[in-house]
Amino acid sequence: GSDMVDVARTRQLVDSVYAMQSILDPDVHRDENTRGMLLTYAASYMTLANAYQRQSRPADAEHALYLASRLDMDRDHKLTILYHLSNFAVEAGDYNRALSALDTVRALGYTDPEFAALRGAAYQGKGDFSRAETAYLGAIGADPSRPEYVQALLRLYLYSMHDEAKGRALLQQWLRRVPNDSVAARQLRQLS
Q1: Are 52 and 74 in contact (CB under 8 A)?
Q2: Is residue 162 helix, strand or coil?
Q3: 112-to-115, 117, 119, 130, 147 alpha-carbon distances in Å
Q4: Phi and psi for 104 in degrees, rounded to 5?
Q5: What DSSP designation does 26 have?
């Protein structure tokens, strides 16, 4: 189909055939053509990562995006790569790499509740439940209308921290804001 990628061939082309030896050298002048080539490399790595993800190879997907993250790109393209890198790294269980990518996002001055939620997932995966809770609460505080952040925090409370009281309190608070959420209402009944 149109979304099929010859992973081995694409990897061989990026690594060997079209390899630009100085692509990571910050001293090499970046004119408009060079910046365009960098974006092509990044797009190729993103294509590889997505193909690896479809093949249930999250570690390979993460590695392809790690290579892309080393490229000198404008902020918006860099953020896209870092978002996917942190997401794939969490899925692959490489929580330190996910946190490193998220630290870079923070250093770029970008804040978004999605990144806070990813940070929560990485800390949760590492077993650092206090920091995970803080990150999830930050995501909820930044966008209190998103039920997926509440659900992520609820899973932390129930399955990682084994704290039903915090889970109940969270659901009660959520239902005061969104009283028609039948899923949360059912979950609260199950905890009572």
Answers
A1: no
A2: coil
A3: 6, 9, 11, 20, 15
A4: -65, -40
A5: T
Q: Is 92 left (phi over 0), alpha (psi -120 to 50) or beta?
A: alpha
- 28-32, 50-54, 99-103: range with lowest mean pLDDT: 28-32
- For residue 30, what are the CA distances in angstroms to 60, 74, 82, 88? 29, 12, 21, 29
- pLDDT digit string, tens, across residues 49-90: 999 999 999 988 998 899 889 888 888 999 999 999 999 999
d(C-alpha 131, C-alpha 117), whole Å: 11
How many other CB atoms are there within 10 angstroms of residue 141's CB atom?
A: 11
Cβ–Cβ under 8 Å, residues 56 and 33: no
- Letter for the amino acid at 80? T
Q: Write out the two tokens for 120.
A: 């929560």
| Cα 139 to Cα 46: distance, rounded to the nearest angstrom | 26
pTM metric for this prediction? 0.82
Residue 191, C-beta contacts closer than 8 angstroms, at least 6 positions apart = 164, 167, 168, 171
Alpha-carbon gap, residue 91 to 115, rounded angstroms:
14
Spatial distance between the Cα atoms of 119 and 107, rounded to a whole number of angstroms: 14
